[in-house]
Design goal:
The protein is mainly α. The chain has one domain. Helix content is 66%, strand content 3%. It contains 17 helices and four strands. A two-stranded antiparallel ribbon has the order 1-4. A two-stranded antiparallel ribbon has the order 2-3. Helix 4 runs parallel beside helix 7 and helix 6 runs parallel beside helix 8. The C terminus is likely disordered.
Length: 438
């Protein structure tokens, strides 16, 4: 059955790319992530006993992804995507003096936030090493004890750093694509801020901050690349570069796990990759075979929209970790793809109805963001919002990050921050002129 799933997902990715011609479109991102996970699960055919995979699991995973692609094609007719026909006009004049001062201030805020977080972590957990502190903080959260109390002002410093990182990824992508000689003067300030953003996120004990930075940068980079060449197309040279970067990230996966304090002494890099991208397919199959029908919940859509309820009623909704799965001494982790909560709440039909909803939201912002290609040097709020969504869409093979991160009150606060950032940039940091790509 796993081979049938592989074929379905290959066809799905082919259709998504053939229709949208963009590797950052929602159906390609979801389909590509799920295909990678399925192929990884196939490579562990004997170790994970993949021959026992049931037809229902194949239908829900493969069918859900294909239905998402079909829904995106439908919505592309409603939300018009900008059609590229010629290289974009690059209208800009960056005020490098103001940008330099802005980044010096932002870097200081980021460093101060990191130092204060480390101070409070050491005060709570003792004088441990960096990796041990990260593990202690993560265990404190997982155990539900939450003994670490970080003041709101310090957390806001981290939020500020994250929001400014959207500007950093956008500016850095322009530096690479346009080779702007004025922006190159402040390139290292931008890189330093991105490093601070990564380190600040790393203190949470998760790989997500680095992966999110990479995905956001990737989306913005390819938008600028498409704008520069005047069409949705990737040549062989660009494809090879992209493949090399992905391989380097995969090779460094174990080192990143060590950096954030994970115990990987007896595990190879490929085993860690398989657990992070692949085991979810097997986990979902185990879940489906044990729970063929939807489960009873306290409120409508409790699992799908858990973060929505937990932010409104934090005392009533505390998330319990999913069951860790093991097969033949292989750890499969405790995540089950994006489709598990949809099935828990709404049954088989829920996999398709929620996929339809996600396609609607993601295609709205994707279509709006493509109009930034008219003038890629003008910062666009829709582009930033969609780039933050892209990570959640791509990571659909892992969990339901989309409904977890987008469908909650806190997401609207992030959108407001983005709108404020765009207003500041457009009014104080960039002056628009008429000039083509050089």
């Amino acid at each position: 059955m796993i081979f049938i799933l592989d074929i379905l997902l290959i066809i799905n990715v082919y259709i998504a790319y053939k229709y949208f011609k963009s590797i950052v479109s929602p159906p390609f991102l979801l389909g590509c992530g799920m295909l990678l996970a399925s192929l990884m699960a196939t490579s562990y055919y004997e170790e994970w006993i993949m021959n026992e995979m049931c037809l229902r699991s194949v239908g829900l995973i493969g069918g859900g992804c294909c239905f998402f692609t079909i829904s995106c094609i439908l919505f592309s007719k409603i939300f018009k995507i900008y059609k590229l026909s010629h290289p974009a006009v690059f209208n800009h004049k960056f005020n490098t003096k103001r940008i330099r001062l802005f980044y010096i201030f932002s870097i200081l805020i980021g460093l101060l936030g990191i130092l204060l977080k480390l101070y409070y972590m050491k005060s709570q957990f003792g004088s441990l090493g960096l990796s041990e502190l990260i593990v202690a903080r993560r265990m404190d959260q997982w155990n539900g004890e939450n003994n670490l109390k970080i003041p709101s002002i310090v957390r806001q410093m981290g939020s500020y750093t994250s929001v400014i990182s959207f500007l950093s990824t956008w500016l850095y992508s322009i530096i690479i694509i346009s080779k702007d000689k004025y922006l190159k003067k402040i390139k290292w300030l931008i890189i330093l801020h991105l490093c601070i953003t990564f380190f600040d996120g790393m203190l949470s004990g998760s790989k997500a901050p680095l992966l999110e930075l990479i995905v956001i940068f990737g989306v913005m980079y390819f938008y600028n690349y498409y704008a520069k060449i005047g069409k949705y197309y990737i040549n062989k040279k660009m494809f090879i570069r992209f493949a090399i970067i992905m391989i380097l990230l995969a090779v460094s996966f174990r080192g990143l796990s060590l950096l954030i304090g994970r115990n990987v002494d007896e595990r190879t890099n490929i085993d860690l990759l398989a657990e992070y991208c692949g085991a979810q397919i097997k986990n979902f199959d185990i879940y489906i075979q044990e729970n063929p029908q939807k489960v009873k919940t306290r409120v409508w859509g409790e699992n799908t929209f858990f973060n929505f309820y937990s932010e409104l009623y934090p005392e009533k909704f505390e998330k319990e970790p999913d069951t860790f799965q093991f097969i033949n001494n292989h750890s499969l982790g405790n995540v089950y793809t994006l489709f598990k909560p949809y099935h828990q709440d709404f049954g088989n039909l829920g996999v398709f109805t929620i996929s339809f909803f996600i396609a609607f939201v993601s295609m709205f912002f994707y279509a709006k963001s493509t109009y930034s290609l008219k003038n890629p040097a003008k910062i666009n709020a829709y582009l930033i919002i969609y780039s933050t969504m892209a990570m959640s869409i791509f990571m659909g093979f892992f969990s339901s990050r989309f409904t977890e991160s987008i469908c909650r009150p806190g997401w609207f606060r992030t959108v407001i921050y983005i709108l404020i950032l765009v207003w500041i940039v457009n009014h104080f940091l960039i002056k628009y002129t008429h000039k083509r790509w050089e």
